Hints:
By secondary structure, the protein is α+β, with helices and mostly antiparallel strands.
Amino acid sequence: MVSNDALTQDKHKVGLEIHQQLDSKNKLFCNCKIADSTEHDFTFKRILHPTQSEMGSYDQAAIFESKKIKTVKYLSSRNSNCLIESDEEPPEMVNAEALELVLTISLALHCTIEDELHVMRKIVIDGSNTTGFQRTILVGRNGYLDVDGVRVGIQSICLEEDAARIINEDKDNENDTKIFALDRLGIPLIEIALDPISNTPVFVTNVAQTIGRLLRATKKVTRGLGSIRQDVNISTNDGAVVEVKGVQQLSQLALVIEYEAKRQEGLNQIAKELKDRKIDESKFLDSIIDVTDFMKLSTSKIVKKILSGDSRFMGFVLRDFSGLLSFEPYPGIRLGKELGEVAKSYGIGGIFHSDELPNYGITPEDVKSLSSILKINKNDAFILVGGPSILLNSVISELSNRIRKAFSGVVAETRSVRLDGVTIFSRPRPGSSRMYPETDIPYISIDENRLKELSKNIPRPWNEVIDQICKKYLINRTLAENIFDSQYFSLFENIVSQTSINPSFIISKLTEDLVSLER
């Protein structure tokens, strides 16, 4: 087995996209105040559909989401929403306060800033935007940042509107219903995208930390869990790029990079095994057979639960795949698991394959009968998929595509992340077809005089900020770094200014005791 250290050397490249909420009084395209709303005044529902880009093509990620046939329910509050968030009124002009901060950060990172900024629409139909797109503005590009003596390139810096806040998913008749709160939708957000980095996970973490400190030094960004998050793009041997979205804690970064590097190495080994068996990737998939009537006879509680309502079971054969679905080059890395994640992204939990059966209440006799119904040979494998009839064709089509892609190893896709760094399939990676110009907002002119004025507001280097904190509060550097990097720095300053409590004691309580209680 290859060690994690070996898995994360030069053959792996990591790109970071850092998203940080800006501490603005108002939202990006309206005058609504920014406030967390625990209650809502009204709701409405939408079903979002993909639209063509300006080139006349459809984005594959949008097509994938549209196949799920999900209704989206939105919770809106008069305290933090207006008709703009509901997409019932055109957007207003861009928030000047937010734009000036992003221009300042772009200057601090040595970016080129064009004399015209244009608002673009980025197609997103997962329900997180009522419009079916996210508005974004490219502000800076081709900058750089020096970290530990290494120069890291800045690809782009954008000003974006944050997405709606997902609440949960529930059942609405036969279809899943996603529920979003609109209090977060439209909050100004800066996105900093870096050039790919060929270095250790520790170095990548240092880069993210350095940028986070630069942003916090402005004292104009929001703090707290969820206010900053990283998307991590990882590739192996210049292969397909996997995007891991929503890494909220720095401690997760190294875990994500190490897991995803291991996973991609494992997928390449699975592809090698497929080729070694000389399986014809154009002929491995046999006919799809409805096995609902047989599965209704099963005593499995899981099967019975799946078949309650308008659900069916379909089975299909994979020729010469016996043992491949459970083949595990690294712990937890299996093709069968990859397929299960694809099915679950549709809300389908009922997927079984022959390598893991008998199990789940499906008996050896059931397996024998299914093998006969599906006409499999000893070298073959089969997959069973159970779920709502309206979704099964789309799910089976997606599973078939995923199996075909397994012959090439790593698949370009977007994945979510757990706290332990394990990644989970979400959807295919979006392409260039997701962007098109915003037609409701005119372009923004940027002149040199404005940039010269903003350059006076570039935040001081982090070391100088820490030195000032040490001097002001008579504390050592370790304590200064701990409180400045935490979400409690503003609270710390307020407590010190209003009490005579020792600053070192306050920092200890905020950065150690509170964190322990949160855990």
